[in-house]
Amino acid sequence: MEEFAFAFLNGDILREAWPILWQGFLYTLALAAITVPLGLVGGVVLALLSTSGPRAIRLAAAGWTDLFRAIPPLVLLVFLYAGLPFAGIDVGAWGAVAIGFFLNTGAYYGEVLRAGIESVPRGQMEAARSTGLSRGQALRYVILPQAVRNVLPDLVSNTLEVVKLTSIASVVALPELLFQARQAQNATYNATPIVAAAVAYFLLLWPLVRLISRLENKALAGR
Amino acid sequence: MTSPAPSPSRGAPAPGLGRPIVDARGLWKRYGPLAVLKGVDLSVAERELVFIIGPSGSGKSTLLRCLNRLEEPDDGSIHVDGIELLSPRTDINAARRRIGMVFQSFNLYPHMTARQNVMLALRKVLRQDRAQAEAVAARALERVGLAERMDHFPAQLSGGQQQRVAIARAIALEPRVMLFDEPTSALDPELVGGVLNVMRELRQDGMTMVVVSHEMAFARAAADRVVFMADGEKLEEGPPAQIFGEPRHERTRAFIRQIDRH
């Protein structure tokens, strides 16, 4: 028992590692603040193209979505970071993360939002257009608000996954929480920093998990 | 007046009414091999109330939906208030401001209150400022008898009230013509009267109206002209007394007998 506490719950190690863990936590927050909006923008664009464009564009959007849902995000990230330089393109760690998450999480948000848009009855668009609103105005003021509301639990759930996924940025040497915890572990020969990182993720994401449960219960009750 | 006097087969507006607001000619609409409209003409004079009746699948709703281009006709021409609706140069959004439409299933925006439903196009299409749009919306909702329900969401309103909000949403834009697509078909019987009353008042205020509906009693009492359609064609038309009293066409007779039995 004492050995377990020494290896995993070591107060001295934690105090020592705290500054770089905290820095990693801030990086993780920054990554979430970049990847979630990027994914959402990509998702909205994909959802609009796959629901209201001409047939060729709808098919292209669907193919794009399939492609980036099928490629593992880690593989995509490594390709962008370590593969593209062979073509003379160096996007750097931040660039690789931004592009990779835009492509990957955009595809996932796009699927969720597409389902939301398709859940809004046709008559809504017709009513809006009959009053003289343009297609864009109808989407913005009538369709999208209802679409988002209809898939809100899925959107929040997807966001939870995106934040967790930011830990893969550690493989391109961005000093986020997991990367820093590994550094601290290697420096101290002790697993406590990893445990601390797990606890930090839990504290960050648990409110989101609770929110999803509440939204899902509310959606069930509203039925 | 530049347009030639329409021949009786085109459906001349009843005498004493104003110039044509809606003038649709030779409308064709096909879905694949199926022709839903086969060269239909419809002319509606200012302040006229035209009722379109016919069995389901006769093309009456499609005809109505062509009049604001929710449905794109394959051939023909449509003029509404002098605007050539099918011309590629026409700003369809601007044209639709002059054409109000009321749907069978109301189609209110469920995430907005009654007043917000009415205000949306006032703000975004007519570009009114908030205070003005609020005042116009309040007046429109008063006109349909819902002043007290302005801040209710659609889910908190009865079907009849929702349909009246939908009418307010359309008339707030001061359209030149109102299209009604089976406005009472989705309503419980006890709620139909309130909607018909609002339509009657609109008519008294001189609104031009085209109504697709099975409310035959209302058609008899209020319509200037009744158009009977079957199989994508206009079979006959005339004053309600003629269409209901002495229909010329056997199919009209059969249809009216069947409706009256209900």
Describe the overall structure.
The complex is a heterodimer of chains A (223) and B (262). Chain A contains ten helices and no strands. With 223 residues, chain A is an all-alpha fold. Chain A has one domain: MetI-like fold. In chain A, helix 2 (11-52) packs antiparallel against helix 3, helix 2 (11-52) packs across helix 5 (92-118) and helix 3 packs across helix 5 (92-118). The longest helix of chain A has 42 residues, at 11-52. The radius of gyration of chain A is 21 Å and the shape is globular. Chain A starts with a helix and ends with a helix. In chain A, 37% of the residues are buried. Chain B is of the alpha/beta class and 262 residues long. Chain B has a domain at 112-174. Helix content of chain B is 35%, strand content 24%. Chain B has nine helices and ten strands. Chain B has helices at residues 60-66, 92-96, 114-124, 130-143, 159-171, 189-204, 216-222, 240-245, 250-261; strands spanning 20-31, 34-45, 49-53, 75-80, 83-84, 99-102, 177-181, 208-212, 225-230, 233-238. In chain B, the strands form two sheets. A six-stranded mixed sheet of chain B has the order 6-7-8-3-9-10, sandwiched between helices. In chain B, helix 5 (159-171) packs parallel to helix 6. Chain B is globular, with a radius of gyration of 18 Å. Chain B starts with 19 loop residues before the first strand and ends with a helix. The interface between A and B is medium-sized, with 18 and 24 residues.
Number of domains of chain A: 1
Distance between the termini of chain B: 44 Å
> Which strand order spans the largest sheet of chain B, edge to edge or round the barrel?
6-7-8-3-9-10
Q: Identify the most extensive interface between protein chains.
A: A-B, 18 and 24 residues
Strand tally of chain A is: 0
Indicate the percent of residues in helices of chain A: over 70%
Total of DSSP H or I helical runs spanning 4+ residues of chain B: 9
Q: What is the helix/strand order of chain B?
A: EEEHEEHEHHHEHEHEEHH
Roughly what is the average pLDDT of chain B, rounded to an integer?
91
Q: Look at the helices and sheets of chain A and give the structural class.
A: mainly alpha
